Here is the input.
Amino acid sequence: MEASTLSRLDVSQRARPAAAGPRGGQAIARPAAEGDGVWPAPVQSTPLNIAVIDRDSGLLIVLAKRLERLGWKHRVLAETVPIKTIAAMRLDALVVDLGIMGPRCWDWLERLAQSRRSFGIVICTGSSTVAERVRALRLGADDWLSKPCHPEELIARVEAVAGHRRRVEPRNMETLKIGEVEIRRDQYQAFVADSSLNLTRREFQLIEHMAGAAGQVLERELIYERLWGYPMIRNDRSVDVFVHKLRRKLEAASPDWRYIHTHFGIGYSFAAESIAADTADADELQSRREPSQDRLAA
Here is the structure.
């Protein structure tokens, strides 16, 4: 009964156009073909809480019916909902059609990815290029599905993204103090004298990862894979860019200390070194050299 109902609902949306993808293509969800069979139930033991940003009425109807049967909580959001509001929702996943965002879609996606705490982002949109899909994944999207697509595949991808994030080991929430910097894991932020450094999500991930290495030199490739979740492409400078941004914020907030140390050709390390102490050591070394130079002159 459930499969036949899903098929009828899918067929009913054949003539309903969906929103355009990033390149302006139109798409509709694929109608279920005969013989698709009964879909296996999701393996999640706890119902998921998801939100959808899409204008494709046909897909939304089918998806809503299926999610109701699964017992998942879901809501449809307008593209005008503020990012802060979305980030504050207790979601497991967000499904979004980037096409309805227009030219601002990339900036919107980056700000959303930086603002969220734990939910996954699944892009479900029209025709696209490899460059567009790669760009979205690098900005923080967890998965990309092109329309037309079957609702069951979309549900499976949402389940996979949410399940992966739920299986992550509990984070160490203890505050880490290095030099004048306090890295407060429970707030996803770093502070100097109780003043926030206003780090973005990616910047916080970087400082938390580097500071947690206890002064160990971390290779660029390992930093990239830890933060972005996949291997770094040759000549990619993303790590260097974020290190530069983080270093500037640390220098502005704590000018008497040096934290990030560059190891050319390898990567970076994080350790607090007092600039005043370095200056004192240099002065002492200079004072030791001066008497010997005076003897040589005599």
The chain has ten helices and twelve strands. The chain has two domains: 2-166, 176-277. The first strand starts at residue 49 and ends at 53.
